[in-house]
Amino acid sequence: MSKDERNFRNPYARLPACLPSSREKASQPPQVPPELSVRLLAALEQTLVECDSAYRHAPSADTSVYTGTSGVALLHLHVATTLHAEDHRKSREHLLQAQSLLTHCLSRVPSHSITFLCGAGGPLAIAAVVEAGLGNTDKAKSLLQQLKELYTSNKSRFSQLPSELLYGHVGYLYCLLFINAYLPGAVSQSLLQEVARVAVEAGEKGRQASVPSPLMYTWHGRHYLGAAHGLAGIATLLLQLKTEQLPSPLAPTINYLTSLQLPSGNFPSSLESCHDSSHHSDRLIHWCHGAPGFIHLLSHAYQMLGEGRYLKAGEMCGEVVWKRGLLRKGYSLCHGAAGNAYTFIQLYHLTGHTHHWHRALKFAEWCLSCSERVTRTPDAPLSLFEGSAGVAFFYCDIIMSSRGKTPFPCLEIPQPKITFTCS
Ligand SMILES: [Zn+2]
Q1: Where on this chain does Zn(2+) bind (predicted)?
Q2: What's the pTM value of the predicted model, to 2 decimals?
Q3: Ramachandran region of residue 242, left (φ > 0), alpha (ψ -120 to 50) or beta?
């Protein structure tokens, strides 16, 4: 398939408000037109009803956050702690829905993986927060203990894992950062640092003599570079530890990654694809592989390290996602228009330039009306990362953008409007 066949032509490309030439600084928080806001809210509610009904009638064997039941529980938690944070009754209703979905998951969490997105860590972390939110402190404490023991009870097994986000070290690190976002201080800095150190040491061992990056990793034999399986995702998690002293190999690793940006603004999915002479390095505009995953790394790098090259590279990501980000494959968070739209949310909050916000709104409009355009039905059509729950998460974040930055789920640390305690 040629790269042109992977995406629709962007029908909004000539809209004046969406052009970088119209660059202006926002003087007020981003606004959603009232009619669009009504449609986004209705779609969000409708998706929640469909998901709850489907999972109640036929509990899924897949308990993961990525494609299974826990992902819908996370959507409920997100709505409870952002959109309805100030409406105690509605917030509690969503926490109770999440609790009900998680009851099924906790009895069958996967034993082969411990990460947030694809392993036991996600259901345990979400359940700990939900139980704390419902005031069930002892239950929350017990779940938190189980989550910590995934690492502490078998550290040597942990060190043997890969390091990437979906199945590896930083996928577990995300569980701990997620807990501290909702239950401040529940995970110690020393535990966070210890887990991060395992990931850094694995990257130092994986270093390639021929590649000028102090950290390098493989997953299934390939040197992946993107957010889901690769170096960009690992570095994004390590940057978010926000320690005064970053691991010393991190900045040169990010500089190396930035140097791999292609003339289009996209990034290759793996080192192996860089050596592909048939343009395969510039194929995918996905959160999982390509520029829509790198934007989050570049944004955190710019905020932490302050170098303009990261912002420039981030703006280039925005251009290629705008041109080629309306995918025929679908509208999901992982490889679809909703996940790609977080590129513009990220750039808007980084720069305050209104054309990024207009682009995010156009991608939301596209998702609202895209069901008849999508050429492939996802394997998990209601799920968080491949289906409609993720699109609903994006709608919630568009609505909430007037209240501040809305992080990419399961990669960036959440910013709930209310927090809980389990002590
Ligand atoms: Zn994907």
Answers
A1: 288, 334-335
A2: 0.96
A3: left
